[in-house]
Amino acid sequence: MTNEEAIHAIKCNYPHERYTMLREALDIAMLLLAAESKPMINWIKYDPANPPSAEIGGAEYLISSGHSVEVGIWLDDEWFSNGDMGMGHSEVTHYAHINLPGEDTR
């Protein structure tokens, strides 16, 4: 059973209003199931034909080769790993925007 199916089953069998403690527990369960279903990091597959926007060049990203993750930037049509921790420029397969607390998500 997927998380979405479990949430649907809870909603279809939601107890009568007099069962307040059970309803509260089920509400918490549905919130946790929904949160678990959402990806923590929205990875974007790097496509050399469609790189990150030049408008945000120099912005920091999480970059990945599929085996490791580093912080890097997209600048002058090339990936640069902060501190060059070992990931080569051509090894980047995915990237993700870094959103700090309070910033809009992308």
Plain-language structure description:
This protein is of the alpha+beta class. The protein folds into two domains: 3-37, no CATH class; 44-97, no CATH class. Helices cover 26% and strands 21% of the residues. It is built from two helices and five strands; from the N terminus they run ααβββββ. It has helices spanning 3-12, 20-37, and strands at residues 44-45, 60-64, 69-75, 78-81, 94-97. A five-stranded antiparallel β-sheet has the order 1-5-2-3-4, with no helix packed on it. Helix 1 (3-12) runs antiparallel to helix 2. The longest helix has 18 residues, at 20-37. It is elongated.
Q: Count of helical segments? A: 2
Shape: elongated
Question: Can you count the beta strands?
Answer: 5
Tell me the distance between the termini: 30 Å
Strand order of the biggest β-sheet: 1-5-2-3-4
Described by strand count, sense and barrel closure, the largest sheet is: 5 strands, antiparallel
What sequence of helices (H) and strands (E) makes up the elements? HHEEEEE
Describe the oligomeric state of these chains in a short phrase. single chain
Helicity level: 25-40%
Strand coverage percent = 15-25%
- Specify Rg, calculated over alpha carbons: 20 Å
Structure keywords:
2 helices, alpha+beta, 106 residues
